[in-house]
Amino acid sequence: DIQMTQSPSSVSASVGDRVTITCRASRGISVWLAWYQQKPGKAPKLLIYGASSLESGVPSRFSGSGSGTDFTLTISSLQPEDSATYYCQQANSFPLTFGGGTNVEIK
Amino acid sequence: EVQLLESGGGLVQPGGSLRLSCAASGFTFSTYAMSWVRQAPGKGLEWVSAISAGGGSTYYADSVKGQFTISRDTSKNTLYLQMNSLRGEDTAVYYCAKGQSGSSLDSVDYWGQGTLVTVSS
């Protein structure tokens, strides 16, 4: 199984800050990586697929990069509504696996 | 508008069974792979199972293999998850999830609202 390791597990930042979350795969997954945002009590929402493609309707302050084993989700200018938990997920092989999540808090 | 509406969750005793259903609408159900993803209280996301667009291929997490069965009924636009021999560690919100493309290996672009399964005596 491919293990997905996210860091940090939590981050606290101010409105307008740049926030970067990292996801590392235990072996190469090409660009088969997605990022999701989940708010308390809600279903996850797709932000990024194919490592760097922005899902329709997602604000352009969200971006993804990486390939192989190392990936990054960047929020270029943090907004209050971005307070949530973020998960990466590999879609290279079964079983599909998620990272442990990163909780983003607004200072 | 894509909609995924789960049902069938509830309280069940250890060793019991439940069948979850997910009624899909707003897209051509037969052309997309579907998955179930669960989330234990206060925990992260765990992929449970997937089924190909045509229903001919199924995939399971090791934690539920031999215990859960995924299926789909194209005539009813409905996805199912039959859960047997339930244990406390199966307690979670179960999400129905639509694959982004026709491939079974894919990201999820739509999620249901989730249905809570509680395994307890």
Structural description of this entry:
The complex is a heterodimer of chains A (107) and B (121). By secondary structure, chain A is mainly beta. Chain A has strands at 4-7, 10-13, 19-25, 33-38, 45-49, 53-54, 62-67, 70-75, 84-90, 97-98, 102-106. In chain A, strands 2, 4, 5, 6, 9, 10 and 11 form a seven-stranded mixed beta sheet that branches. In chain A, a hairpin with a 6-residue loop joins β4 and β5. The radius of gyration of chain A is 13 Å and the shape is globular. The model of chain A has no long low-confidence stretch (mean pLDDT 97). Chain B is an all-beta fold and 121 residues long. Chain B is 0% helix and 50% strand. Chain B contains no helices and eleven strands. In chain B, a hairpin with a 4-residue loop joins β7 (68-73) and β8. The radius of gyration of chain B is 13 Å and the shape is globular.
Strands of chain A, total number: 11
| Share of β-strand residues of chain B | over 45%
Characterize the biggest β-sheet of chain B. 7 strands, mixed
Structural class based on helices, strands and sheet pairing of chain B: mainly beta
Helix content of chain B: under 10%
